[in-house]
Structure formats: C-alpha cells, structure tokens
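Structure ticket #2291
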Amino acid sequence: MHTRTIGQGLQVSAIGLGAMGMSQSYGPNPGDRDDMIAVLRYAVEHAGITLIDTAEVYGPYVNEELVGEALEPIRDQVTIATKFGFDIAGGQMKGLNSRPEQIRAVAEASLRRLRTDVIDLFYQHRVDPDVPIEEVAGTVGELVAEGKVRFFGLSEASAGTIRRAHATFPVTAVQSEYSLWTRDPEQEVLPACAELGIGFVPFSPLGKGFLTGTVKAGQQFAEGDIRAQVPRFAAGNLEANQAIVEHVRGLAGAKGCSPGQIALAWLLAQQPFIVPIPGTRRRERLDENAAATQVALSADERADLDTLLARAGVHGERYNATLMALVDR
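Resolution: structure written out below.
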C-alpha cells in the first residue's frame, strides 16, 4: 500500500477504511464484536490501511467505541477521522448542531470513546445553516491549538462553504460521496480542493456495494439496510442501473481484476489527493480493496469510464429526500 498526501501535509494510505458498516446501515450487524475488532486490526497490520473513518452518529457512539478498542494497541500506526455536527437525543439523530459548545462537547466525548488523546481528523459531518462556517472553523482551530485535534475536515460541503472555512482555518480534507455513478463533486468541489491544496475523501466509492457487481436486479434488502431507502436501489431503478456495473464488469474481466477494483482504480486516477474509504466487514474485501492500488488504467480505459455515466445514465437519487436536504449545495 502506498501513501498519499492530502491537505496540510497529512500522509495516509492511498485507500482508507470506512468503519460505519461495522455498526449500522447494511442489514443485521455482526454478532461477534471481537471479529470486527480483528478486521480493523487486520486492515492496519496486513492490508496497510492507515486511515480509519468513524463518527459519533454511527450507532450512535458504538462505532467510535469499536474503533477505539480495536486501534488502541496500534494507535501510533493510524490516522483516525471522526465527525461532529448532528444533534443526538435519546439515541436518535434529531437534526444538525454545530454550535461551538457542541463541537467542544463532541470532541471530548469522542476522545474518550476512541481511547486517544488527540483526534487526527475532525470533520463537520454536515454543514449547519444556523452556524456560520467561520465559527465552526474557528472552534476547530482552537481545538487544534489546544492539542485535542490535529486537522479539520468538512463533509458534503459546497465549494463556497469550503472556501469560506479554509479562509478561517485550513481545511485538510473534504469528504463527500463520489464514485463512477455519483459524479457531483467534479463540477465545483474537486476543482476547489485542487486549487486550495485540500485532500478529497470519497465515501461510498463502491456505490454502497453496487459497483462490486454483487447487487443483483430485483434484490431485496434486509431490515436495517440503508439501501432499502435509497432511490437508486428501488425496483425499476436498480434494474436500469445494471448497465453501469455490467460495463465495469466487462472491463474487469479483460484486466483480470474485480469490478470493485476497477471502480477504486478509476477514483485513484482522478487526482493524486483522492483517498477513497470503502467499507467492509471482511478481511478478503480489505485485501481486494487494497490491491486496487496495483490496477493500472490506460488513457483509453479512463476516458471510457469517464463518460460511462453520460452514456448509460443513472436512475434515482443517491439519497432519499430527507438526507438530500442535509447536503450543502
């Protein structure tokens, strides 16, 4: 696994790991907590992954606790990213809250759950329209000065918000959904990151599993699986979207790799400051994802994939209406 440098000189593995799915969102959660701890340690010690992504809202709280327990013995080998910005009450997300006092409270609680004395990368999970981004950036800047946080990030932020935040305190990374079938960041966000020297961290880089080729037409999703609420996976849309993954599958077959590796290799080829964070609960998928760094795409193959979405089209939004309303645009 080679490394990449994102904003402010932060070096991380070229592919990271999104830990959310170990605690929620993809059907029944694993019954064996120790197995998930072992997977997290395997990611670092065997797959060479050094960027681990979590958030207080995952669970809520239990994902940070899992990551903290797993990584405590190897803390010096990893960059841990977590997030603030939601109002959580009674175990439920109740809206947004990025007031300075809330940011500080979340930082202290996350430090305890993560069993660490510093958060490496602290993202605002969603932009709060009720709190000026300058106040948010300034508060995180204070936490950096106090030694509780190392770097500041934003998630699902618009280019305008990124610029305002960066003018107040340097932004190290922007995290948003980006993949072969979600191309939204290309128009404004990626150019802003390139201009300002900010890293870009795509979540759902495998399209919530779709781009691996393992999601079949007509598939029914288990209770608790977020994809049951995502329009792209709804009946009719899921079938229409198969044309995308079939094209990727064909290229993967010709190159002797998996469709998921093609999807990750394409992302890595877009910009040198891009670090995808695919999620998984399985060691073999960690190895497969890490090996995507060895998949080389020719100029013609890249050009073909660049225009795939325009040719095939994508059917359905990437979020339901409630979640789309939280995206800063």
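Closing remark: The CA atoms of residues 247 and 308 lie 8 Å apart.
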